[in-house]
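TA notes. Do not distribute before section.
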Amino acid sequence: MEKSKFVKSIRLLTKKEQQAFQQYVQTHHGSKKTAVKVLEYVLAVCQKKSPLWLSKADLAEQLFSGQQTVTPRTVGDALSDLYLLWEEFLLWTSIQKDRDFETDVLLLKHFQKRGWKQQYSDKWKRMQKNLDAKHPKDAAYFYHKMLLAHDQYFHADTPKLSTQIDSLDEAMDKLDSFFISRKLLYMCELQNRSEILQNRQDMPFFQVMERHLHQDKTLPLVIRLYRHTLQMVREQSDSSFHLLKELFFQHLSEVSQKDQIIIFGYLINFTAFKIKNGKREYTHQAFELYKEALARNTLSEGNSISHVRFNNIVNTACRLQELQWAKQFIDDWQHCLTDDIRDSALCIAIARISFEEGNFDQVIEQLRTVKFSNVYYNLRCKTLLIRSFVELKESPELITNHCRAFRAFLYRTKLIHTDTVLAFKNFTDAVEKLVQAKYETPKLKDAMEKLQPMVYNYWIEEQLAKR
């Protein structure tokens, strides 16, 4: 029973939602007596957070003792019914909260099927008006407008022999806008992955589309935004970044939340690429982008934040010595981390701030005995420890031993990309050379230049400047 589809699904609901579901079943499907009783038992077990190990036969015997009509198969049918009711309940609650476009489309089709012409006409006009008044002009807007125009054109009352049919022209125009905006987005994703994986792919349609887009100066905003996004991802140039950023912020209030999330992501990823390649002035750009996205709640959909992005934000603030801001960010956003990773993410974030505050003994105390299951945090932890030992001027032997142990970890761990392994290995090599007295500063600088790619380049340079 624990592995049944319904039991797994009901556990996804909060306690309040489970109670609402039970009330929904009792109110609207109270005649399903077996399902109602099975649900009552399952919810009682769920609320105790206990596993449900009873078989269908055991449940039939325990709940329906003496009722020969209730068999294990009957219980199985009740569980199947409950799963379908669970899906129905989710749709019902969604409609109660938000009468969205899809709900209105269902009503429109129902009016058309019943031949209710006046109701159909009124609903169609209201849907058009609502779209134009409330909806940002994103891909969903063009898709919905195309659907309405399509529905109008193929309605039985629309004359098909007219020389000009507005609904057909409208359907074709909105279909083009929807298609181009999505095609550009998918090209951005393809190009981005090609860059990350170092596996360039041809996009023959891009050339045709570019010629068309450059000719038209009245393109919808969403198309212009994704055209500039694609240009930025392809060129990786400063000018393309600033063009996109200027257009984006100039029209930010007109951009849907979903598109804001996507474009903020591309802009932030671009700054990360530039910082990684030595353009540290982009740290300020990244920080401002993070602050704006956080203020608008457009770093991700829903009430959550990626643990990687969480720590990247802390790191960016620390690089700029915005330590009080970083602490406030942790307080404000830690609840948005998932339970399974929250403690690890907070541990590294707090240690990172302690490091920037110069509390190196505290960093070592925080991290020395911590074991992380996540590879990402192991990398952060080991590099923070090594850097703290260097800052405290610990013995070269201790620092070298930690570097060697870290290299062994890198070679032993199969989940780390080879480029990442090389960047961290070069870091350990640089640290070892840094703490060895035999290297004079000019020779040391030459040696560091050969150790690329390397993480924490800026910190290594700071250490060289102190010699």
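Switch to the second chain here.
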Amino acid sequence: MPKWRNYLLRSSRNKPNSSQLEGALTMSEPVKNTHSVAVGYLLWIFGFLGAHRFYYGKPVTGALWFGTLGLLGVGWLIDVFLIPSMDAKADRKYVQGPLDYNLVWAALTFFGVFGVHRFIMGKWLSGIVYFFTFGLFFFGILYDFFTLNDQIDTYNRKSSFERVGPTGTSLRPQV
């Protein structure tokens, strides 16, 4: 038997069959969906101001879009095709947890001057300050547009690490 035939036979034995592949796919980690494509497209409508880029965790290009009106509309039009990939990257980057990214972003976008997003995150003192100062005279809202994804991610990571069991004992791994 020629050597190349032995190689082909040997390599075909090591390949997983379709049932093994299906099992691997079903046993894999569930897909997390921290950000929504629908919310991304809704914010894209106002995308010439960079809202969708801030939402997907791209504050530098969000500020660039804000300052240039979506690169004079050209970048804004191209983004209609890039939103699904931006969503996938944000889903891989940020942690899912008790705080929903979509809810907090909607609160910031529509009620940020009243500090509603801060109240949702449990930041009562800054929420009250935002309420009485119109989001710290809009500078606080600008800060939150740049950092909100990281604030939510930090909260979700911390809360998933410090979960408490039904008996009131910490589920935190003992070191």
